[in-house]
Amino acid sequence: MTFSDWGGRLVPFPEERARRYRDSGAWSSDPTGRRLHQIATRFPDRPAVIAAEGQMSFAELDRRTDQIAAALIRLGLRRLDPVIFQLTNRLETVLAWYGCIKAGLVPVATLAAHRMHEIGHVSRKVGAVAHLVEAGLPSFDLVEFAREHAAGHPTMRHIISVGDVASNDRDEVTRLEDLGLDIDPHTAHAVVEQIAIQTDPSDVAAFQLSGGTTGVPKVIPRIHAEYWNNALLYADSLGWDENSRVAHLIPIIHNAGISCGLHAAHSVGACLILATADASVAFDLMIRSGATEVLIGHGHYQAVMTPEFDLAAVSLKRIILSGAKVPHELFERVDDGAERWAGQLFGMAEGLFTVTPLDAPAQARLTTVGSPISSDDEVRILEPGSETELRDGEVGELCCRGPYTIPGYFDAPDHNRDAFTSDGFYRTGDLGTITEIEGARYLSIEGRIKDLINRGGEKINAEELELLLLEHPGIANVAVVAMPDPRLGERTCAYVVATRGDVLPLKDVQEHLAQLGVAKFKWPERLEWVSSFPQTNVGKIDKKRLRAEIAAKLVDESDSRPIGV
After folding, report:
1. CA–CA distance, 250 with 493 (Å, rounded to integer)
2. Distance CA 398, CA 401 (A)
3. Position 2 in a domain
4. How far apart are the first and last CA of the chain?
């Protein structure tokens, strides 16, 4: 096997730390595809995935993804070729993920909502060779989008569709559903094993994307040695086993979807119940499938307070809450102190995961995000902008390093100099503190330094959006801030200075972003037209004041609304 550092663009773990992680068992020498096969051999007949499109046992999943992997190799794809993923939560997405992993390809985890601005940048950054898209989405033709994206792309060679029934008039598009059906399973598995033999544990298993604070998303390399183990540590922290049924509602191709859903469930032989963001449909699937575990993001907090959740919760044993401070009434609803347990999760695609220990007292489960899932994780709270460590109870920047926290972004040397401390701790940009409860230390998140908007779990980079808005001839200056929203947590508000004093309709601004190919979830949902911006004492735009102003204005508007409206 030969390790690839991608021409020097991949930052390797320091050898001393890598050796420590191998010795402790935090890292594995087996590639990710082989880890799935090992589980499938142990639990062949147990259900691996239940989705709206159907279900599969571990043996069926293992066999079918071997065939897909062998067919991808037969198409001419080669080990470490990057593949852009634009798929929603469906059974075929799981097949596509493991098929690519077993073929030694590198899934690039983008969103179905991303458009040319994001996909074009990321695809060229990694040198993507294939684009895997979902057909038949009601609002957008991703297959046609993939064709447009491929035109003139220096490395793109293949478009692969999922859910596409119109194969006859799409000669340049390969249907995932057709891949490998003619390949004998034993032959397919032999091909997969040859790929596994060639795979170095330090090879990239997948590229995730950041919601970073500057420019378009940065690329996060996750390696075989740690990625499956990261999920296994999470599953073990929550006491999952082969009898667990794990419901997942947020996008599966997110890092949370892979590490807390797909890989986490399968690492212990548990069944993944692959639902969608539609709460009513998801709750129905959870009821029919007997879900025992569920991760609830902030975007579903309100749905949990409805009567429909009561039926979905009948079989639930553990509920993990993530994405925002947990209201007391929500915690009391999901945690009954006996049959149903609730805790919290905090994590990021760059690495660190914390989760509430099962034996943590209720106060810790309500007010903190728990503890790191690995004994090899190192957490420091630093004075922002420095390397001075603060005492427990003081609020500062959360910094971390460990077996599954990246040592550097992909092909981003300038950014890496600021994103990591001199001794390799990742600066998360989040404000945190260590809280002691009943003799145990827990992490609390107290806000963030990063200029991000968290819209229902989707991170929107304020600076990136500001630069795009400034391309409109009618906009002279702009400051993008978060405004509170009861359902999504935050939405995007743009404070705008007009070029000639003329106010533009919101619709015109959104059409401008659509023409630039910007994902719709990033578009501002409110404009506040001003003649100038408030300044801090160092001459910067005072965004803290702008956030406070829009929050107060929303309260005033709500208070003045007639009852019943």
Report:
1. 24
2. 11
3. no
4. 65
**CATH number reported for the structural domain that contains residue 54 in this entry:** 3.40.50.12780
Tell me the C-alpha to C-alpha distance, in Å, between residue 327 and each of 183, 364, 456: 53, 14, 16
Give the domain-ending residue among 374, 404, 439: 374
Last residue of a domain, one of 374, 391, 413: 374
Residue 358 token pair? 């099962």
- pLDDT tens digit sequence for 10-62: 999 999 999 999 999 999 999 999 999 999 999 999 999 999 999 999 999 99
Residue 460 lies in a domain: yes
CATH code of residue 489: 3.30.300.30
The strand ranges marked E within 486-531 are 489-498, 526-529
- Rounded Cα distance between 277 and 110, Å, is 17
Pairing verdict, β 318-322 and 353-355:
unpaired
Q: CA–CA separation, 493 vs 488, rounded Å?
A: 14
- Residue 359 — φ and ψ, nearest 5°? -95, 10
Burial class (CB within 10 angstroms; exposed 0-12, middle 13-18, buried 19+) of 553: middle
Residue 216 lies in a domain: yes
**Structural domain containing residue 228:** 26-374
Number of domains in the chain: 2
DSSP tag of 111: -
**Neighbour-count burial for 86-103, b at 16+ CB within 10 Å, e otherwise:** bbbbbbbbbbbbbbbbbb
Beta carbons of 275 and 246 less than 8 angstroms apart: no
HSE-CB of 327 using CA atoms within 13 angstroms = 13
> Tens of pLDDT along 123-157?
999 999 999 999 999 989 999 999 999 998 999 99
Nearest to residue 421, comparing CAs of 404, 398, 447? 398
Element holding 451 (H helix, E strand): none
Do 358 and 492 lie in one domain? The reply is no
What does 273-312 look like in DSSP terms, one character per residue?
EE--S-HHHHHHHHHHHT--EEEEEGGGHHHHTSHHHHHH
